What does this fold into?
Amino acid sequence: MRIGQGIDSHAFADGRPLMLGGVAIPYARGLAGHSDADALLHAIIDALLGAAALGDIGGMFPSSDPQWANADSRDLLRKAYERVRAAGHRLTSLDATVVAQEPKLAPHIGAMREAVAALLNVDLGVVSIKATTSDGLGFTGRGEGIAALVVVLLE
Ligand code: MG
It folds into this structure.
């Protein structure tokens, strides 16, 4: 068994869709980034690559490479997990926490879990996604952005 952790954060920006966990979430602002800035999927990618000792998202999809500009993070996750599978590993547990003061994410947790499980072709029970606020503290508390933390177990 191998354990991996991933963390990512992105700032809010006007005029962009809010993508989180592969799901478009209705909100006045989205997240700024080179790709679609899906902080949850990015943290999952880093956790998977980390568990397999295959580097990180920046190494696999360099932001200096125009090929990944405005990338759909769902494609990045699929590619990263293909690499992990090719190295002989299989995801057996994923636990994620998204830190956001707003929007309220509870109504979207089910859709995010289903999207992530489908992208990784694993049972829904493998994927746990939780949401919390930081009680008004820090950049998430001030509503400046969203952070995501992920732990995975590979067998
Ligand atoms: Mg990111």
The radius of gyration is 15 Å. The longest helix spans residues 73-86.
